[in-house]
Each structure stands twice: as C-alpha cells, then as structure tokens.
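Module 6 notes. Inverse folding takes a fixed backbone as the condition and produces residue identities as the prediction. Think of it as a translation problem where the source language is geometry and the target language is the twenty amino acids. Below is one complete input and output pair. Work through it position by position during the lab.
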C-alpha cells in the first residue's frame, strides 16, 4: 500500500525585553492544530502596548479556531482575513472604552498552513521570512513610512537604516475602525523554515545573517536564542520576539 507524504510544522519561539526597554510590549501565540502562529508588537504608552499585542494574539487565535470548527468549508484566506479584522475590532473597541488605553495599537504577522500551502498575513512592520537552501527572503512588505519611501524611490536602503522615522508605521491593528492586511501564499518544501519576527530583531540582522544562523542542522530553540542574542549584542533598543517554524515531511499509510 502506498504511503502518503505530507508536511507538518515544528516550531520554537523566544521573546526578550531587549537592552533599553523596561517592559515587553511584544506578544506571540500559536495553535498547533490548525498550524496557526502569530507575533505582535504593541505600542501606545504605559501598559497599552502589552494590552494591544496580547489582545490581538488572543482574538486572532480564538476567532480562527471558532471558524475552523463552525465553518470548515471556508477558505484559509477568508478565515485568516476575518480573524485579523476581528482582532482589529476588539483592540479598537478596548482602546476606545478605556482612557488609559487610548491610541494603543499593534503590528501583526501570522502564518497558517494547510497541507503544504502556507498563508501569511501582516499589518505593520513585523515580518515573515522564508529560509530555503541557505537563502533567506522576506515575504511580507512593511507598512512603514520609510519602506513606502524606499518603494517610491525617495529613500535608499542606506538612508532608511539611519532614519529617525524607522518606527513610524502606516497600518496597525486598532489604529482605525477597519484594517487592510496583506496576504501572501507560498508552497513549502520539506526543511523549509519560516521566521515570524518583530522589528526589534530585523533592524539588526540582514537576511543573509538570518540564513546563516538558521541552518538545517541547528535545533529551533537554539536558532531563536541566537537571533535574539545577536540583536541584543548590536544594541537591542526594542523588544525582540521571533517564532521559527520548520517544515517536516511525515508519511502516513492509507487505511
């Protein structure tokens, strides 16, 4: 009897306050079944950033799980889009109902997989990368002022790297009544890796450096810790959070 090959995801995560901040406004979460992973980077002053990021993570996962149970016929795109929009609604309403949380918001980058197909969603400047055969490629596009200026030709990469406006984002969960996330799809191969991360890491590490650290022979927790430590050694001015996923081939014999 023929064996069927499919992909599963192994993962590890790490988060760190960094070298300059007093509290950690990043949050991450996951649901291994159905393969959903998310990183959020909150902001808004005081404890508002922590509330925004943790709320977005929780609502995204809960909403996705509920749709998977109640409406399994929905496409992956529709489930993820609705879950991101619901996270935006709850963060927005929470901020409006509490004066201490006004103006809070958060970035969001997430990944979910069905079979070998992975779907990435993002709002803000947290990023997703694909690591394959020693190369690391950014999947997402930052919703940030400097990235928009780079794309329009107003700034070079070198100019953006020293800009005082690096932290200015143009889209965020909770910033408005509605949000427009970007969605990206890719077909994973065995041993491919995905990195979901806040900008506290990506402002210090280039894709080639990420690829060198995320070698196929290195355990995922060690990769996460090495990425965080590298960012801290180079300044660690912001909170640092990452999730690393590795696609693994599994076989099953049809009954």
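Target side of the pair, the amino acids:
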């Amino acid at each position: 009897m023929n064996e069927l090959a499919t992909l599963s995801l192994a993962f590890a995560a790490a988060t760190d306050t960094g070298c300059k901040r007093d509290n950690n406004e990043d949050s991450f979460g996951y649901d291994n079944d159905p393969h959903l992973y998310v990183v959020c980077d909150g902001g808004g002053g005081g404890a508002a950033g922590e509330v925004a990021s943790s709320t977005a993570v929780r609502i995204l996962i809960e909403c996705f799980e509920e749709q998977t149970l109640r409406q399994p016929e929905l496409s992956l795109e529709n489930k993820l889009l609705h879950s991101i929009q619901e996270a935006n609604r709850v963060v927005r309403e929470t901020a409006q109902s509490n004066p201490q949380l006004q103006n809070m918001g958060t970035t969001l980058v997430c990944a979910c997989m069905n079979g070998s197909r992975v779907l990435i969603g993002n709002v803000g400047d947290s990023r997703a990368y694909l690591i394959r055969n020693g190369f690391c490629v950014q999947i997402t596009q930052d919703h940030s002022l400097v990235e928009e200026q780079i794309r329009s030709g107003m700034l070079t990469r070198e100019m953006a790297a020293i800009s005082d406006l690096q932290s200015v984002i143009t889209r965020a969960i909770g910033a408005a009544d509605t949000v427009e996330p970007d969605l990206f799809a890719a077909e994973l191969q065995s041993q491919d890796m995905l990195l979901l991360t806040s900008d506290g890491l990506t402002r210090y590490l280039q894709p080639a450096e990420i690829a060198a650290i995320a070698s196929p022979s290195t355990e995922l927790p060690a990769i996460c810790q090495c990425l965080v430590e590298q960012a801290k050694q180079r300044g660690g001015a912001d909170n640092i959070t990452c999730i690393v996923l590795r696609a693994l081939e599994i076989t099953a014999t049809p009954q």
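Reference fact for the lab report: The helical segments are 48-70, 76-97, 145-151, 157-161, 199-202, 207-213, 220-233.
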